[in-house]
């Protein structure tokens, strides 16, 4: 037995979505359903049951948590997601020409963040991070390794594009969007 209502109403759904400032499509993405389902829930005058009841209570009680999950609009030419398995740990936006870096962490676990405790990394921190996700420049027979992955020279960004920054026995990796 839990201290939860058995159902929510279409008005509850509409109010929750509007209080969050989300479109039906955005709200559907947040709660893991389709836009047509949200449309139906908001139109029908029925009792809505299932996991959405608990989820809506949690969202109502902790609306700031939703803001922590929002992925901001892309402002810089390169966007990277530092991942642990399938979980986003840190979003990294980079403008190489202006040497600007912006991040947003999606975990409280410092060891899972791309830059640890550093919330405002500079461009040098970013370059060091890239280097840390590649095999060492001093690796024995590096030219053969580069040849194997189809690269003419050592470039950390290009290596990460090819390898996703994956390391042996490591579940962290990097997804790049341009």
TrEMBL record:
SMART domains: HTH_XRE. InterPro entries: Cro/C1-type_HTH, Lambda_DNA-bd_dom_sf. Coiled coil: none annotated. SUPFAM superfamilies: lambda repressor-like DNA-binding domains. CDD domains: HTH_XRE (cd00093). The keyword Zinc does not apply. The keyword GTP-binding does not apply. Keywords: Plasmid. Residues 13-49 form the HTH cro/C1-type domain. It comes from the Bacteria. GO terms for molecular function: DNA binding. Gene3D superfamilies: lambda repressor-like DNA-binding domains (1.10.260.40). This is HTH cro/C1-type domain-containing protein. It comes from Lachnospira eligens (strain ATCC 27750 / DSM 3376 / VPI C15-48 / C15-B4) (Eubacterium eligens).
